[in-house]
Fold this sequence. Notes:
Elements: H1 2-15, H2 17-41, E1 48-49, E2 64-68, H3 74-82, E3 89-90, H4 103-107, H5 112-116, E4 118-122, H6 129-154
Antiparallel strand pairs: 1-2, 2-4, 3-4
Helix pairs in contact: 2-6
Amino acid sequence: PLIVGLETAIKHAVAQTEQTQDHLQSLCRHLVQGLQAMQERIPELNIHFNSLVDADVMRQSPGMVNFSFPPVEGEVILHHLEAKNIFVGLGSACSAQSKEPSKILMGIGLSEEQARCSLRISFSRNNTIEEIDQFLEAFGEAFQNLYSTFSQKAGHR
Length: 157
């Protein structure tokens, strides 16, 4: 019975692959466009998309976006988001448990500051556009509240 159950689950997942990919690409695109629009409204927000290939959502894994936003540290923003029941990751999945900057992000050419000031947003087929909008609102609010503290600490502006 377990093997038959596994077979059924695999068949269902394979049948849903294209629909899932389309949904993830839609979520990814919505997040990227939302962050770009936010950057236009908040001059201090200087987002660098670490996971995008030529900013082309179609050429990357649609289930994940990693971006940095110095000088505000990702871990501090993460805690602000957690308080609103929004859960994201830091750096890369490979360094999720480490307090050190992600070796993966630094390996692709990011500075230590950029690696520390990054978030990883992961999607599943269960996520919604409304959840992306909630993230965008909470992230923008947290960034604006924290920017002055981190910019003085880091010597920005």
